[in-house]
Amino acid sequence: PAAFQGMGYEDFRTSDLTGLESMDQCRRTLEQHNWNIEAAVQDRLNEQEGVPSVFNPPPPRPLQVNTADHRVYSYIVSRPQPRGLLGWSYYLIMLPFRFTYYTLLDIFRFALRFIRPDPRGRVTDPVGDVVSFIHSFEEKYGRAHPVFYQGTYSQALNDAKRELRFLLVYLHGDDHQDTDEFCRNTLCTEEVLNFINTRMLFWACSTSKPEGYRVSLALRENTYPFLAMIMLKDRKMTVVGRLEGLIQPEDLINQLNFIMEANQTYLMSERLEREERNQTQVLRQQQDEAYQASLRADQEKDRKKREEQEQKRQEEERARQSVLAEERRQRTLAEEKERKSECLPPEPPMDDPDSVKIVFKLPNDTRVERRFLFAQSLTVIHDFLFSLKETPEKFQIVTNFPRRVLPCLPTEEQPNPPTLKEAGLSRSEVLFVQDLTDD
């Protein structure tokens, strides 16, 4: 790793395979995986697929694997019997020593449990246990081995269940006499390596590690080397095959093939059921979407209908209010006309020398005639015309020759309108009433 760090080779490989552009992030990822490219890539791909990172595992849960199935295929390879007189002699000579050694070892371990609890019983870093085992395995047997699953046992079970694949579990007994030969001459051979890598997931750990010991308690192996084939069967992760003892490469492949062929129908059935469930889920989702679309359309239709009804109600209310307002205005106007009419001074007699005879031409072509006094204000003329029913609500009085508008109403410049005499009217006048209502 030190040489690769200097060259940037590992960073280049990891960035190409995982899509990480930051070299610092690539280096941190490699350091987390002890500079193992394969582990780093697999962990990164798991994160991209939504699978939790093996370096941030969820809290450990009880291992839920069905080991009580009585139809589990079990294949045990017994150790070869001694051959010849020399072999039997050596076996008989070593038998008391071997018996004594293992008996004392078991007694020592049993007594040690009362003094110091087994540290393997407490799993604190399951991923670290797996990575540590893989590192020690590669140091001893090299990198030519089946691809180890870079994660906890529970994560391997979940992936095998999700992908509907076989999971081969290998428990490594460090102190067993057949472990070294099995790893060198069976597990790391090219034919076994290719077979496992192309047909199944492979998870392994040492029983000296807490994670491996926990799995050992769950699978209850009898001897080492120990292999267990696990798959999804009857909707539960189930052990369908157990291989124990020193097994040869060809025999191992044959036994694994036999187990897989015997249980392939279960996987096919699970795939069909899962596909059917997915299709049912997709159909239900499509139906839900269609229902929601129809519901939204109905709701939109109801909303528009309510809006139209509300708009119509508001228009009707506005029209009604407008009619009421117009009626109130007309009443007010009629009352005002009546009041103005009552307040008008009496019309002077015809022979009064100070009187003025005025003929008014209204906008509707009617003519009205009345006499006024020269001394009266132009406001009296305006009030008289205003009191007539034929007169528009707003109007102005205009002379013909010369054309001018008479100032009948008070203004800021002229708060007191002039009298008829001051306005220059003669004894007989014709005035025009101009409608200003539209203006």
UniProtKB/TrEMBL annotation:
Biased composition (Basic and acidic residues): 297-342
Top-level taxon of the source organism: Eukaryota
Record flagged with keyword Hydrolase: no
PROSITE patterns cross-referenced by the UniProt entry: UBX
GO molecular function, one term: ubiquitin binding
Keywords linked to the UniProt accession: Coiled coil, Cytoplasm, Endoplasmic reticulum, Lipid droplet
A Pfam family assignment: FAF1
SMART domains recorded: UAS
Gene Ontology CC, one term: endoplasmic reticulum
Stretches for region Disordered: 294-356
Cytoplasm listed as a keyword: yes
Compartment(s) of residence: Cytoplasm; Endoplasmic reticulum; Lipid droplet
Location of the UBX domain: 351-433
SUPFAM superfamilies, A to Z: Thioredoxin-like, Ubiquitin-like
Name of the protein in its database record: UBX domain-containing protein
Gene coding for it: FAF2
